[in-house]
Design a protein that fits this description.
Elements: E1 5-14, E2 17-27, E3 32-36, H1 43-50, E4 58-63, E5 66-67, H2 73-79, E6 80-83, H3 95-100, H4 115-127, H5 143-157, E7 161-165, H6 173-188, E8 192-196, H7 200-206, E9 209-214, E10 217-222, H8 224-227, H9 230-237, E11 241-245, E12 251-255
Parallel strand pairs: 3-8, 3-9, 6-7, 7-8
Antiparallel strand pairs: 1-2, 1-4, 4-5, 9-10, 11-12
Protein backbone atom coordinates (compact mmCIF):
# COMPACT_ATOMS: atom_id res chain seq x y z
CA UNK A 1 0.00 0.00 0.00
CA UNK A 2 1.44 3.35 -1.05
CA UNK A 3 1.82 6.04 1.58
CA UNK A 4 2.65 9.10 -0.49
CA UNK A 5 4.89 11.96 0.65
CA UNK A 6 5.66 12.39 4.36
CA UNK A 7 7.75 15.27 5.74
CA UNK A 8 8.41 15.64 9.45
CA UNK A 9 10.48 18.16 11.39
CA UNK A 10 11.97 19.66 8.22
CA UNK A 11 14.33 22.54 8.91
CA UNK A 12 16.33 24.59 6.38
CA UNK A 13 18.58 27.61 6.84
CA UNK A 14 19.66 29.64 3.80
CA UNK A 15 22.11 32.52 3.92
CA UNK A 16 22.08 32.45 7.68
CA UNK A 17 18.28 32.78 7.81
CA UNK A 18 16.06 30.02 9.18
CA UNK A 19 13.60 29.50 6.31
CA UNK A 20 11.88 26.32 7.52
CA UNK A 21 11.78 25.15 11.13
CA UNK A 22 10.11 21.92 12.05
CA UNK A 23 7.70 21.59 9.13
CA UNK A 24 5.36 18.59 9.16
CA UNK A 25 3.42 17.92 5.97
CA UNK A 26 1.99 14.86 4.23
CA UNK A 27 0.37 14.27 0.85
CA UNK A 28 -1.59 11.03 0.59
CA UNK A 29 -2.24 9.12 -2.65
CA UNK A 30 -5.25 10.59 -4.44
CA UNK A 31 -4.96 13.90 -2.55
CA UNK A 32 -4.37 17.46 -3.77
CA UNK A 33 -2.75 19.65 -1.13
CA UNK A 34 -2.44 23.39 -1.67
CA UNK A 35 0.63 24.97 -0.09
CA UNK A 36 -0.14 28.65 0.50
CA UNK A 37 1.39 31.51 2.44
CA UNK A 38 2.88 34.98 1.97
CA UNK A 39 5.90 35.82 -0.17
CA UNK A 40 9.12 34.54 1.35
CA UNK A 41 7.37 32.00 3.56
CA UNK A 42 9.52 29.16 2.20
CA UNK A 43 7.01 27.41 -0.08
CA UNK A 44 9.44 26.92 -2.97
CA UNK A 45 12.14 25.85 -0.53
CA UNK A 46 9.83 23.15 0.84
CA UNK A 47 9.09 21.96 -2.69
CA UNK A 48 12.84 21.71 -3.33
CA UNK A 49 13.20 19.58 -0.23
CA UNK A 50 10.32 17.36 -1.39
CA UNK A 51 12.03 16.84 -4.76
CA UNK A 52 15.48 16.26 -3.18
CA UNK A 53 16.95 19.27 -4.94
CA UNK A 54 17.68 20.58 -1.46
CA UNK A 55 18.75 18.43 1.51
CA UNK A 56 17.23 19.72 4.77
CA UNK A 57 19.41 20.58 7.74
CA UNK A 58 17.12 18.50 9.93
CA UNK A 59 14.01 16.38 9.62
CA UNK A 60 12.80 13.33 7.76
CA UNK A 61 11.39 13.12 4.22
CA UNK A 62 9.89 9.87 2.97
CA UNK A 63 8.07 8.72 -0.11
CA UNK A 64 6.01 5.53 0.05
CA UNK A 65 7.60 4.83 3.41
CA UNK A 66 11.19 5.00 2.15
CA UNK A 67 13.62 7.83 2.97
CA UNK A 68 13.95 10.10 -0.05
CA UNK A 69 17.72 9.68 0.16
CA UNK A 70 17.37 5.93 -0.53
CA UNK A 71 16.05 6.50 -4.05
CA UNK A 72 18.36 6.61 -7.01
CA UNK A 73 17.78 9.71 -9.11
CA UNK A 74 16.20 7.91 -12.07
CA UNK A 75 13.96 5.88 -9.79
CA UNK A 76 12.83 9.02 -7.99
CA UNK A 77 12.17 10.74 -11.31
CA UNK A 78 9.79 7.95 -12.22
CA UNK A 79 7.85 8.67 -9.02
CA UNK A 80 8.02 12.47 -8.69
CA UNK A 81 7.47 15.11 -11.37
CA UNK A 82 8.25 18.78 -10.78
CA UNK A 83 6.77 21.79 -12.58
CA UNK A 84 8.74 24.89 -11.49
CA UNK A 85 7.54 28.50 -11.61
CA UNK A 86 9.53 29.17 -14.75
CA UNK A 87 11.86 26.83 -16.56
CA UNK A 88 15.13 28.30 -17.85
CA UNK A 89 15.75 26.69 -21.24
CA UNK A 90 19.14 27.64 -22.73
CA UNK A 91 18.65 25.87 -26.08
CA UNK A 92 15.84 26.41 -28.64
CA UNK A 93 14.30 22.96 -28.26
CA UNK A 94 10.98 22.36 -29.92
CA UNK A 95 8.07 22.06 -27.53
CA UNK A 96 7.51 18.43 -28.49
CA UNK A 97 11.15 17.62 -27.76
CA UNK A 98 10.83 19.06 -24.27
CA UNK A 99 7.72 17.02 -23.56
CA UNK A 100 9.35 13.75 -24.66
CA UNK A 101 12.19 14.51 -22.21
CA UNK A 102 9.68 13.59 -19.52
CA UNK A 103 10.12 9.98 -20.69
CA UNK A 104 13.87 9.88 -19.95
CA UNK A 105 13.48 8.22 -16.50
CA UNK A 106 11.65 5.34 -18.19
CA UNK A 107 14.29 4.77 -20.88
CA UNK A 108 17.42 2.59 -20.77
CA UNK A 109 20.59 4.59 -20.11
CA UNK A 110 21.70 4.08 -23.72
CA UNK A 111 18.21 4.13 -25.21
CA UNK A 112 16.40 6.40 -27.61
CA UNK A 113 12.81 7.60 -27.75
CA UNK A 114 10.61 4.60 -28.36
CA UNK A 115 7.23 4.54 -30.08
CA UNK A 116 5.70 4.29 -26.60
CA UNK A 117 7.59 7.40 -25.47
CA UNK A 118 6.36 9.34 -28.48
CA UNK A 119 2.79 8.15 -27.90
CA UNK A 120 2.84 9.25 -24.25
CA UNK A 121 4.26 12.64 -25.21
CA UNK A 122 1.68 13.22 -27.94
CA UNK A 123 -1.09 12.21 -25.55
CA UNK A 124 0.19 14.74 -22.99
CA UNK A 125 0.27 17.51 -25.60
CA UNK A 126 -3.24 16.61 -26.73
CA UNK A 127 -4.55 16.49 -23.18
CA UNK A 128 -3.34 20.05 -22.56
CA UNK A 129 -4.63 21.24 -25.94
CA UNK A 130 -1.19 22.29 -27.18
CA UNK A 131 -0.42 19.72 -29.89
CA UNK A 132 -0.18 22.64 -32.34
CA UNK A 133 2.87 23.90 -30.43
CA UNK A 134 4.88 20.68 -30.82
CA UNK A 135 7.14 21.90 -33.64
CA UNK A 136 7.64 25.43 -32.35
CA UNK A 137 10.82 26.57 -30.63
CA UNK A 138 10.28 27.26 -26.95
CA UNK A 139 11.94 30.64 -27.55
CA UNK A 140 8.92 31.60 -29.63
CA UNK A 141 6.38 30.68 -26.95
CA UNK A 142 4.73 32.96 -24.42
CA UNK A 143 5.24 32.43 -20.71
CA UNK A 144 1.87 30.73 -20.45
CA UNK A 145 2.58 28.43 -23.39
CA UNK A 146 5.92 27.42 -21.87
CA UNK A 147 4.13 26.64 -18.62
CA UNK A 148 1.68 24.37 -20.42
CA UNK A 149 4.57 22.61 -22.16
CA UNK A 150 6.32 22.12 -18.82
CA UNK A 151 3.15 20.63 -17.36
CA UNK A 152 2.71 18.36 -20.39
CA UNK A 153 6.26 17.09 -19.84
CA UNK A 154 5.30 16.21 -16.26
CA UNK A 155 2.23 14.35 -17.58
CA UNK A 156 4.41 12.36 -19.97
CA UNK A 157 6.63 11.44 -17.04
CA UNK A 158 3.70 9.48 -15.50
CA UNK A 159 4.83 10.16 -11.93
CA UNK A 160 2.56 9.30 -9.03
CA UNK A 161 3.24 12.64 -7.30
CA UNK A 162 3.24 16.09 -8.93
CA UNK A 163 5.11 18.95 -7.25
CA UNK A 164 3.73 22.13 -8.80
CA UNK A 165 5.18 25.57 -8.04
CA UNK A 166 2.69 28.25 -9.07
CA UNK A 167 1.58 26.19 -12.10
CA UNK A 168 -1.11 28.68 -13.15
CA UNK A 169 0.90 31.88 -12.65
CA UNK A 170 1.26 32.71 -16.36
CA UNK A 171 -1.99 31.20 -17.58
CA UNK A 172 -5.22 32.83 -18.66
CA UNK A 173 -8.46 31.86 -16.93
CA UNK A 174 -9.39 29.08 -19.35
CA UNK A 175 -6.01 27.39 -19.17
CA UNK A 176 -5.93 27.75 -15.36
CA UNK A 177 -9.19 25.86 -15.14
CA UNK A 178 -8.03 23.26 -17.68
CA UNK A 179 -4.73 22.57 -15.94
CA UNK A 180 -6.35 22.17 -12.54
CA UNK A 181 -9.07 19.98 -14.05
CA UNK A 182 -6.35 17.63 -15.28
CA UNK A 183 -4.73 17.63 -11.81
CA UNK A 184 -8.11 16.69 -10.32
CA UNK A 185 -8.51 13.86 -12.85
CA UNK A 186 -5.08 12.51 -11.93
CA UNK A 187 -5.95 12.62 -8.24
CA UNK A 188 -9.22 10.79 -8.91
CA UNK A 189 -7.12 8.07 -10.57
CA UNK A 190 -4.95 7.71 -7.45
CA UNK A 191 -2.10 10.13 -8.09
CA UNK A 192 -1.42 13.11 -5.85
CA UNK A 193 -0.22 16.71 -6.06
CA UNK A 194 1.39 19.32 -3.85
CA UNK A 195 0.49 22.69 -5.38
CA UNK A 196 2.10 25.97 -4.37
CA UNK A 197 -0.30 28.82 -5.07
CA UNK A 198 -0.83 32.49 -4.26
CA UNK A 199 -4.40 32.31 -5.58
CA UNK A 200 -6.20 31.39 -2.37
CA UNK A 201 -9.64 31.18 -3.95
CA UNK A 202 -8.49 28.93 -6.79
CA UNK A 203 -6.61 26.74 -4.32
CA UNK A 204 -9.69 26.52 -2.11
CA UNK A 205 -11.80 25.40 -5.06
CA UNK A 206 -9.43 22.73 -6.33
CA UNK A 207 -7.53 21.34 -3.33
CA UNK A 208 -8.69 18.75 -0.83
CA UNK A 209 -6.62 20.39 1.87
CA UNK A 210 -4.75 23.66 2.38
CA UNK A 211 -1.49 23.94 4.32
CA UNK A 212 -0.52 27.50 5.30
CA UNK A 213 3.21 28.11 5.62
CA UNK A 214 4.06 31.10 7.79
CA UNK A 215 7.07 31.93 9.92
CA UNK A 216 8.82 28.75 8.84
CA UNK A 217 6.10 26.40 10.14
CA UNK A 218 2.71 25.12 9.04
CA UNK A 219 0.38 27.63 10.71
CA UNK A 220 -2.81 25.82 9.69
CA UNK A 221 -3.78 22.71 7.76
CA UNK A 222 -7.11 21.19 6.85
CA UNK A 223 -10.11 21.45 4.54
CA UNK A 224 -10.29 24.85 2.78
CA UNK A 225 -13.46 25.86 4.66
CA UNK A 226 -11.68 25.32 7.99
CA UNK A 227 -8.43 27.02 7.01
CA UNK A 228 -9.50 30.04 4.96
CA UNK A 229 -10.88 32.29 7.70
CA UNK A 230 -10.92 36.02 8.41
CA UNK A 231 -8.64 35.49 11.40
CA UNK A 232 -6.07 33.52 9.42
CA UNK A 233 -5.94 36.11 6.64
CA UNK A 234 -5.42 38.82 9.24
CA UNK A 235 -2.74 36.88 11.13
CA UNK A 236 -0.82 35.51 8.14
CA UNK A 237 -1.36 38.08 5.38
CA UNK A 238 -2.17 41.17 7.41
CA UNK A 239 -5.35 41.89 5.45
CA UNK A 240 -8.99 42.22 6.38
CA UNK A 241 -11.33 40.14 4.25
CA UNK A 242 -14.83 38.83 4.01
CA UNK A 243 -15.26 35.08 3.60
CA UNK A 244 -18.16 34.02 1.39
CA UNK A 245 -19.29 30.57 0.33
CA UNK A 246 -19.69 29.60 -3.32
CA UNK A 247 -22.30 27.27 -4.81
CA UNK A 248 -20.05 24.27 -4.15
CA UNK A 249 -19.65 25.14 -0.49
CA UNK A 250 -16.07 26.33 -0.93
CA UNK A 251 -14.82 29.52 0.77
CA UNK A 252 -14.16 32.68 -1.24
CA UNK A 253 -11.99 35.43 0.27
CA UNK A 254 -12.81 39.03 -0.68
CA UNK A 255 -10.10 41.38 0.64
CA UNK A 256 -11.11 44.83 1.82
CA UNK A 257 -9.24 47.50 -0.12
Amino acid sequence: MTRGLEMSGVAVALGGREVLRGVDLAVAPGEIVGLVGPNGAGKTTLLRVASRVLVPDAGDVRFDGRPLSDYRRRELSRRLAVVPQDTAIPFPFRAGELVVMGRVPHQPLTGFDSADDIAHSRAALDRMGIAHLADRSVFSLSGGERQLVSFARALAQEASLLLLDEPTAFLDLRHRVELLRVVAELAAAGRSALVVSHDLNLAARTCDRLAVLHGGVIAASGPPADVLTRQLLADVYGVEAEILTDADGRPVAIPRL
